Amino acid sequence: MTTNQIPNPKMQFFTAAGIPLVGGKLYSYAAGTTTPLSTYTDSTGGTANTNPVILDSRGEASVWFASAQYYLVLKDANDVQIWTADNVNGVNQPTVDYLTSTGGASLISYAPSGYGAVTTNVQAKLRQYVSVFDFMTTAQINDVQTAAGVLDVAAVIMTATTACVTAGKTLFFPAGTYTCTTITAQARMKWVGESSITTIIKLKNGTNANLVNCLTYTIDDASIECMKFDGNRAGNTSGNVILLYGNRTRMDDVTIVNAPQDGVITNHDPSGAARLGGIEGYFNEISIDTCGGSGWVHYGPNDSHFNKIIIVDTSLTTSLANYGMFLGTSSRTEIIGGIPTLVTTNGNGRFNDLHTWNRGNTTNYPSAGVYVATGGNNFTNCHFECGNSCLAIAGNINTFAACDYYAPDGGAAIYLTGGTNNVSGTVWHYSGLQPYVGIALLGFGNVINLTCDGGNPTSAFTAIQFSDAIGYNNVTMAGYLGAAATLYSGTPNATDIVNITATGPNGAVLIQTIPNSWTAYTPSITAGTGTITTSSSTGRYIKTSKTVNIQMSITITTNGTGSISVIASLPYQASPFEFVLAGRNTTTGKMLQAEIIPGANYIRIFNYDNSYPINVNGEILHISGIYEAL
User: Fold this and answer.
1) Taking 90 as the threshold, does the pLDDT of residue 100 lie above it?
2) pTM for the complete prediction?
3) Cα–Cα distance between 417 and 349 in angstroms, integer?
């Protein structure tokens, strides 16, 4: 029989004068009746007390109740009634039964602090928060708390995640190391750890697959906070750490380490329905450290927000094969409305305080610290460090403001092949590194405004390299260059506007201003028919986009048998339209007409009346005008 202890196992009673009730009598009945109900001498319930129980010389008795309620009557030794009490039970019964039953916590009230707060119960209060431990066995919890790494808890995490998504709850991860095979992310999930140091999700040895995976591109509104994800590169040869494929995804105070391949890959569904409520992702205080592949590959959502991102040691498996961060486009075929449809996503964003770098003891390094293949990105207060180039810009219409570019492992801090970008900040030579270029300019229509510092006296540093620039760039640079540094190399495109200055050691000034200028060329001279015996010519041109301004002077020293027209070559082939330029014979004073037939690479010169422009030997012809190049 199960019994329960009343408040005092040795009950003691007193007279009205406070004297022990020696010989007193305690009668026990079933509650609400006068039917005797036994009490017991100890917790085993094996021996019943007499009824009534006779109190000893101290007015005491050992009284244990059964699992029932009692009606008690206390009398003195002369059977004079002192008091009665009905519906009396032991302290644990039925209270303990209630509290240990399902819903028992709902019987205990909870009063929140604060004016206007509404009283609820403990069960309702506790159910506002869900811990992943609620779904684990004692053995699993112990494995997590001791970081034993023996038990795979991925299935438990997915079960808990499903429950929380269904209920609209946040799933809390207490401190510990959760050893997992692949976990499949779900739309609207929200994971929160104790901290990005103490809550660790670790890929189990030999999994060789993604740690957090997405099965579709519609894992919208997924959120991860205050957690660390360990790809366990030592125990796996393949697998990315986190895939988040959805709109409005969030990560805040998250650390990613030891990725066998890429640390993070983000993508999304760009369709109209998925855009309700916006599409941008929000990523704040993210640290990515040690990746066999790229640190972060971003294909979307476009216009996402990135703040305080640190990416360290990437492309460790194969040098020059990956990136610290890659911003690119991706294409895939999806069935939309029953029709195979090409879907393209665009990975761009707004970046503040991004820093990519590699430790000095790493043998392999990325092709670029940051590779920007897309347009519409905005970077402020960022540090681009390390990589074959610290920053490679292949996309168009990007802005880089107040950023630092330094210490590449290869030839250039900035490698710019794209167009219409705006790049500003400071580019400088890191002491002790190999010779490198501040910015290699190969693009078009870019605005460059940089401060350069190559002040180390042994730094073989070139502030800007112009070779292969397409043109129409506006470049302004100023700074300080040491004895071994060079202001620029190569030749700016004729359409570039360049103003670069630098002071040198000992207060010397090194200034090189390169204006936009005309380009000289020598036209080839022939006749419409016959042969001109001797001639000479000079010419020059300036080309802006397809518009060519041209000027030439031609001297016919000995005309020979030349007739009909004088023909001079052009610097660029003409577009398929007719162009007429004008000129003057300075010997005769006659006006000249010069015709460019559609698609020609030469110009035909006549007198104003279409006659041959040369009357005698030694005449000089001047032609100028504008035409459109092909």
Assistant:
1) no
2) 0.71
3) 20
